[in-house]
Amino acid sequence: MDDGVVAFRPWETYFNCSRYGDRMSRVQEIEKAVASLEPVEMATFRAWFEEFDASLWDQQLQADVESGKLDKIAEQAIDDFKKGKSRPL
Predict the structure, then answer these.
(1) Tens of pLDDT along 12-71?
(2) Cα dist. 46→27, 50, 87 in Å?
(3) Is the confidence at residue 87, as pLDDT, over 80?
């Protein structure tokens, strides 16, 4: 039944915008290129990407530490340790 009411779906605007479409097209191009790599090339790419991804992780962690984002978690961990709420690994 069509009552003339149009549902508001903000994600459709995001997913259908040309900027997102361009981004997806780049990702799809990368996926296609990676899928076509020879085994030796894949190993080289995998090693590079692993380093690249780890570097991004390290940068994000460093930014979180510097911004104080992790202070509360660290304080809780130290407090738990002092209260004996930890165990050896």
Answers:
(1) 555 555 556 666 788 899 999 999 999 999 999 999 999 999 999 999 999 999 999 999
(2) 17, 6, 36
(3) yes
List the domain boundaries for the chain: 7-36, 38-89
pTM of the model: 0.57
Give yes or no for a contact between 45 and 34, defined as CB atoms under 8 angstroms apart.
yes
Contact 71, 65 (CB under 8 A): no
Distance in angstroms (rounded) separating the CA atoms of residues 59 and 9: 35
Concatenating the DSSP letter of every residue in 7-35 gives PP-HHHHHHHSHHHHHHHHHHHHHHHHHH
For CA atoms 50, 52, 55, 61, give the dihedral sign.
negative
